[in-house]
């Protein structure tokens, strides 16, 4: 129970203005034309209620002026009137930054989503026949063509894809997986947990660093429903290691008449190995190797919208499509529009590399990044004046999002060393600006990595710096 308010607290409470009075404050007044009255009074009442709590809970009799309260009302109004989810500049150098929304879509994919959002569409309607169709039709053929798989389907994300496969094909059965692949991916996706939730029983084989073909072969029994291989997306075991080769897993599954399912995690359609980047097999290579089912994300290396893509043999995909869960995990029309458009780029790999920001950023040569860093420095110098020191510094960026672990790419950063204010102060202001600019802090510098920035971002970056400098005390 709260103790009775002290006399001081009572006085502070009495001094608080009434709602109607605060509404008439010159700072709040201009909002009367723009914002419905009921909403305006609610925001004002909320601010006063909060102030009352402050007084009572913290025994804070210290004065908060009416102007301060009016400021709070306006802040409160803005908080509700402006979108919370907003475009930001990713200057972290981490291309697939999970907290910053992972893949950025191509212009074409973004336009496709916008077009489908603004109109009715043939989502589940076959225009040729004038009959009901499947929403999967719009991407299945493209996926067959691009990956060489017999069939394909798309669900909400890759975690859902893995869950659906385990549930539909191995509920109540045993699933064999190497101990070295019992991973946890960011955001609490744990292979062992998802397996339990799906009703499949996990059979771990081998050791953390070594699993041999014999380990898998000896574990297969009548009760085995599936062989599973999971991409160890966010770490790498180095040194004395051994994995069962893909071909051997395919062979074991074939011999025993059970499917071999591989969770590829990222899943690349574009051959990055050719550019000396990582050693990921492409989805096409895995299909060719005879893997029965493969799943991967739409918004990792593929560079499309959030989705879980499953490709493989028709008989298994049919079972997934018919399963009850498929409805719960289905993708919406925006995802399909963005995905279809993204996949279409891959019909011409050069077009994919050029138009899909994820690939484009991975492939950007260091010389170009250096030029862009110099360019940004030129643009920012007049804004920053003597508030900070600017320099172009070589560094390393990574793909992130559990893709290509251990692969680093040479990059260039614009480094800002504050002269006025602290580095954490600058970081905070840039992050809290109208268009947030998210960099990384290292010691006394703020780094803005050009690998994840586009020239089209520059005006927004300049504007944000201008705002921050205008506050005068970054
Ligand atoms: C990222 C990842 C997932 C989860 O994919 P989402 O699309 O984020 O749901 C599952 N498995 C592996 C191996 C991954 O790397």
From TrEMBL:
One of its GO terms (cellular component) is cytoplasm. Its EC number is 2.9.1.1. Pathway: Aminoacyl-tRNA biosynthesis; selenocysteinyl-tRNA(Sec) biosynthesis; selenocysteinyl-tRNA(Sec) from L-seryl-tRNA(Sec) (bacterial route): step 1/1. It is an enzyme of class 2 (transferase). InterPro entries: PyrdxlP-dep_Trfase (IPR015424), PyrdxlP-dep_Trfase_major (IPR015421), SelA-like (IPR018319), SelA_trans (IPR004534). It catalyses: L-seryl-tRNA(Sec) + selenophosphate + H(+) = L-selenocysteinyl-tRNA(Sec) + phosphate. The modification N6-(pyridoxal phosphate)lysine is found at residue 300. Coiled coil: none annotated. One of its GO terms (biological process) is conversion of seryl-tRNAsec to selenocys-tRNAsec. Converts seryl-tRNA(Sec) to selenocysteinyl-tRNA(Sec) required for selenoprotein biosynthesis. HAMAP family: SelA. Belongs to the SelA family. PANTHER family: L-SERYL-TRNA(SEC) SELENIUM TRANSFERASE. This is L-seryl-tRNA(Sec) selenium transferase. It comes from Paludifilum halophilum. The lineage of its organism: Bacteria, Bacillati, Bacillota, Bacilli, Bacillales.
């Amino acid at each position: 129970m709260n103790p009775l308010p002290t006399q001081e607290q009572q006085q502070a409470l009495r001094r608080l203005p009434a709602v109607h009075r605060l509404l008439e404050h010159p700072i709040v007044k201009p909002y009367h034309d723009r914002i419905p009255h009921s909403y305006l009074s609610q925001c004002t009442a909320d601010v006063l209620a909060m102030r009352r709590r402050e007084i009572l809970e913290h025994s804070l009799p210290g004065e908060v002026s009416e102007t301060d309260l009016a400021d709070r009302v306006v802040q409160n109004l803005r908080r509700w009137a402006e979108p919370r989810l907003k475009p930001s500049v990713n200057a972290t150098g981490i291309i697939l930054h999970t907290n910053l929304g992972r893949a950025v879509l191509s212009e074409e994919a973004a336009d496709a989503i916008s077009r489908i959002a603004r109109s009715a569409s043939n989502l589940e309607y076959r225009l040729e026949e004038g009959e009901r169709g499947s929403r999967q039709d719009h991407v299945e053929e493209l996926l067959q063509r691009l990956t060489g798989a017999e069939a394909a389907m798309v669900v909400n994300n890759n975690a859902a894809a893995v869950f659906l496969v385990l549930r539909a094909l191995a509920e109540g059965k045993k699933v064999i997986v190497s101990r070295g692949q019992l991973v946890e991916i960011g955001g609490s996706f744990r292979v062992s947990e998802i397996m339990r939730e799906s009703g499949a029983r996990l059979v771990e084989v081998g050791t953390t660093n070594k699993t041999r073909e014999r380990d898998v072969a000896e574990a297969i029994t009548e009760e085995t429903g599936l062989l599973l291989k999971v991409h160890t997306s966010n770490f790498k075991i180095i040194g004395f290691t051994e994995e069962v080769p893909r071909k051997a897993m395919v062979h074991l599954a074939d011999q025993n008449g059970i499917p071999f399912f591989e969770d590829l995690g990222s899943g690349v359609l574009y051959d990055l190995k050719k550019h000396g980047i990582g050693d990921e097999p492409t989805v096409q290579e895995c299909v060719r190797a005879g893997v029965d089912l493969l799943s991967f994300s739409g918004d990792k290396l593929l560079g499309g919208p959030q989705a879980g893509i499953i490709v493989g043999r028709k008989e298994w995909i049919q079972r997934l499509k018919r399963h009850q869960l498929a409805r719960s995990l289905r993708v919406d029309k925006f995802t399909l529009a963005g995905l279809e458009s993204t996949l279409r780029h891959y019909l011409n790999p050069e077009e994919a590399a050029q138009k899909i920001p994820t690939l484009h950023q991975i492939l950007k040569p260091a010389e170009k990044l250096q030029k862009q860093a110099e360019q940004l420095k030129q643009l920012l110098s007049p804004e920053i004046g003597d508030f900070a020191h600017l320099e172009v510094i070589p560094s390393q960026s990574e793909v992130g999002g559990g893709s290509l672990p251990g692969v680093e790419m040479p990059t260039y950063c614009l480094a800002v060393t504050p002269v006025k204010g602290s580095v954490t102060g600058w970081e905070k202001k840039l992050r809290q600006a109208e268009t947030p600019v998210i960099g990384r802090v290292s010691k006394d510098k703020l780094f803005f990595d050009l690998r994840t920035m586009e020239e089209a971002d520059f005006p927004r970056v300049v504007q944000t710096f201008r705002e921050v400098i205008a506050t005068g005390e970054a």
